Amino acid sequence: MPKLLLKNVELITDGPAYPKKYVGIQDQKIAYIGITKPDGYEGARVIDGFNKLLVPGFVNAHTHASMTLFRSYADDLQLMEWLQNMIWPAEAGLTPEDCYWGTKLAILEMLKSGTTAFADMYFFMDETARCIEETGIRASIGRCVVSAGCADGGAAKLQEAVQLYKDWHGKAEGRITVMLQPHAPYTCSKAYLKQVVAAAEKLGSEIHMHLSETQQEVKDCVNQQGLTPIAYADSLGILDQGALIAHAVWATPAEIALMARKKARVAHNPQSNLKLASGIAPVTAMLDAGVTVALGTDGASSNNNLDMLEECRLAALLHKGVNRDPLAIPAKTALAMATVNGAKALGYDNLGRLEVGCLADLVLYDMDKPHWHPRNDRVSLLVYAANAMDTDTVIVNGRVVLEKGQSCYIDTEKVYAECEARSRRLMRV
After folding, report:
1. Which of 76, 97, 319, 414 is deepest in the core (most CB within 10 A)?
2. CB contact set of 81 (below 8 Å; sequence gap of 6+)
3. Which residues have a Cβ under 8 Å from the Cβ of 14 and sit 6 or more positions away?
């Protein structure tokens, strides 16, 4: 891959001075950061970052990418009514090609708002992997598996998930990783979850699962299993595999201590949780306990967009209000949740930071806008004032995938046309 040199950029990490800097990228990583032009970049592609702020790419730690096809379809409903009466019947009509185009739309939306990596749980994941391979984005993916309603007890779905791991884990220049992804305690029997854990142990896979999303889920789990959802998952060995827990809205203090001890990561989805009236996760308690808390959008049918800047801002504001404490989630903490914590949630220790040796997943935001003035604090401006339309250039794995706000690898009009037609068929509109 050719070398890339950014010049005249301001780095989010530089504090109040913000000197213009050079950033050299080679072999998919940040190779140089400094105020003088580095040697060895003769003939490299040069991007002038004047009036641009360089930020680690956002990581969407929990979503269902091709649910973009259901955007604006089933709004203003509680979770189980939304799932059982609207989403699950519509999903029954999905084809692999639907998920391919729905995922393309999701990736386009994420890149255009500065997201460079995402964790995806859904169906027809070979098509999702193809989209990732073609578009240059990074992702942790998995086939969502359930046993409920399956004549074979979910065996075929689990086999698909295992095969996905074998076929795609580590592929696309390392941009694709795979986790096993059981949906939730209420859709997977105890025996089935034990099979998932056994498969994960054999593969060496981590597990991504919805847990403790609603108060009713907690009540049902206690009634049926005698344990709250996260404690129940741990009793089956799920947290021992390396777990990414989506939501954890109703996590108890004991479960928070458990997640910290087992190094489970949490994907906090504030906008989706609020829209579905699921509740507000105890994020400050998790952070205080040492739990890695990342941010996710959830699917576009329960959000209704995939804009991580919005999630970052909402996370900061929501927890200030809930805790009646303006210091509850400072802008710097919210940004870390959206970047380096998201990277950790996906299993990376060399991503989400502007440091030499880290993977070059980077975003240049255009500060030549009214809401970027005056420039007293760049982190504050990014979290509290910026918007998705400020995304200028996106780099993933050292390759430019979005330039001047336009995708380098996605036919935008084709994606729009395909998704409109497929959504109308699924919705029978």
Report:
1. 319
2. none
3. 21
